[in-house]
Amino acid sequence: MANSKIDDVVYSYATDLSQLEEENRVLKETVENLREEITKLKQAPLMVCELKDIIGKNAIVKIPNGSSFFVNISEDCEKILPGDTVLAEQKNLNVIKKIPTHKTFDVEKFVIIDKPNVKWDMVGGLKRQVEEIKEVIELPLKKPKLFKKVGIDPPKGILLHGPPGTGKTLLAKAVASSTKSTFIEIVGSELVQKFIGEGAKLVKEVFDLAREKAPSVVFIDELDALAATRIDVGTSGEREVQRTFMQLLAEIDGFKSLDNVKIIGCTNRRDILDPAILRPGRLDRHIKVDIPGDEGRQEILRIHTKKMKLDSKCNLKKIVSEMKEFSGAEIHAACTEAGYFAIRENRTKVKKDDFTKAVKKVKEEENLLGQDYLKMFG
């Protein structure tokens, strides 16, 4: 009996000792981890720099504010090349290590990426423009070997110009859809950023994205906000616009004519564009998208009324005659308004009178917009 009690005490002592040793080991690891954490917190942060050039065992780096410095490369640093993103000590800017190239922007916040489902039969009144855009954009993407056999290079991109609402964006979406390309839409003013160099980086990353998602069509709306004629300027904002524009030209020059990326610029003001963007080898095919004629307006009206229930007495030719100088967008607006007039009277069929009132309303709204424009800009 006595021996049994002694054995229990010894076993209990051994068990307690084992638990204490385990707790001691865990505490030592915790203390060691805390010491490492304190050491890390005391270390000076490293600066992210762009490696511009390597000269022997030294390098030229560009820091975020735009300044460049001639610095040393650490012996422990892995192999680096110009263009890499590196970490450098803040005090003496010695290059410590290479880090994976990161994107400055989340590009997809600045662009609209789409796989359009716009068929050519949804484009009305633009027969000549459709033929041209098919030749310049669709044919090289679908039959690149044909151009190689003939021995010519197709244009890298085109410029669509003309009054607002005439179908420029619709044409771009239709050609992207017909070639099963990714449609990347960006507004020219979005490319101009607040800080020095950021606009140029954004342009570069937009075109990198286009290459990743090729075949693709890059559609730059309001191109005149970025590519207006350059003048000698002193403000930092205007200089930044010019830096961004120069990067855009460099990106276009970097494409081969038969690459799976095509560029479509769009503007209402071709007259103020810089000749550099219009010269052969860049956006060298210019397609004017103007206000449609009588036949074009009738074709557009037929497209927009295809799904509408029209009264038997509704004559489209007479309706078109009331839409003199209407753009495609205005014809679409008139069809929508005509539908609303029918809905207000609890009708499902649209009458000729509905269209007459709708056309009058659209004209009045356009006149008001014109008056507001004159007040603002004289």
Descriptors for this entry?
378 residues, single chain, alpha/beta, five-stranded antiparallel sheet, 4 domains, OB fold (Dihydrolipoamide Acetyltransferase, E2P), 11 strands, 12 helices, Rossmann fold
At a glance:
The chain is an alpha/beta fold. It is built from twelve helices and eleven strands. It has four domains: 43 residues; 54 residues, OB fold (Dihydrolipoamide Acetyltransferase, E2P) (Beta Barrel), CATH 2.40.50.140; 182 residues, Rossmann fold (3-Layer(aba) Sandwich); 84 residues, Helicase, Ruva Protein, domain 3 (Orthogonal Bundle), CATH 1.10.8.
Low-confidence stretches: none
User: For the largest beta sheet, what order do the strands appear in spatially?
Assistant: 6-8-9-10-7-11
Count of discrete structural domains: 4
Q: Order of helices and strands, N to C?
A: HEEEEEEHHEHEHEHHEHEHHHH
- Terminal residue distance: 114 Å
Q: Determine Rg (CA atoms, Å).
A: 33 Å
> Architecture of the largest domain, CATH level 2?
3-Layer(aba) Sandwich
Biggest beta sheet summary: 6 strands, mixed
For the record, the CATH class of the largest domain is: Alpha Beta
Any idea of the CATH topology of the largest domain?
Rossmann fold
Mean pLDDT: 83
Per the principal axes of the C-alpha atoms, what is the gross shape? elongated
Query: How much of the sequence is in beta strands?
Result: 15-25%
Q: Give the strand tally.
A: 11
Could you state the CATH homologous superfamily of the largest domain? Answer: P-loop containing nucleotide triphosphate hydrolases
